Amino acid sequence: MSTSHGSTARVQAMLDKLPEFEPDASLWTRIEDAHARRRRSRSAVRTGWIGAGIAAALAVVVLRIGAPEGGTSGVEADTTAWQMQSEALEREWLASARAPGHVPARARLLGIDDALQAAYDRGATSDELAPLWQQRNAALRSLIDHDAARTAAVTRI
């Protein structure tokens, strides 16, 4: 037991020799800012993965439903074109999004996605699906435009 007490006394003596100082007044602010930046960065990465997962899930749904045998009609071809445009817009939006985006437009996009999923679940025709894909593209374009306007406003000198 004397060895343990002796090493504790030695450590205490070494600590007593260290200089004392007052840390910079802004130290805690800088520490809190660094933690907040780290949290935002992790949140942005998580949002990107969630968006990619949603896009992948939509792609799987579209591929699993597939086109009926015997070719596609003009309306079905239009629906496919709207789907492809939607995928391209979503990739553009996810690549450029630096913030969560415009909340009402995101809510509108989620509502349209729910309507699309419900339409596919009940076996909707292309006549019903094409307008939903058009609405989804408009919502994505709104998010892209909002992010671009926000970035332009921030970078304006």
Plain-language structure description:
- The chain has helices at 2-17, 27-65, 74-96, 103-121, 126-155.
- Mean pLDDT is 78; it is low at 152-156.
- 81% of the residues lie in helices and 0% in strands.
- By secondary structure, the protein is mostly helical.
- It folds into two domains: 23-71; 72-156.
Please specify the SSE layout and strand pairing.
Layout: H1 2-17, H2 27-65, H3 74-96, H4 103-121, H5 126-155
Helix pairs in contact: 2-3, 3-5, 4-5
As for the number of domains, it is 2
Number of strands: 0
Provide the β-strand percentage band. under 5%
Cα separation of the termini: 69 Å
SSE pattern: HHHHH
Give start-end ranges of low-pLDDT stretches.
152-156
List keywords for this structure.
mainly alpha, disordered C terminus, 2 domains, 5 helices, 157 residues
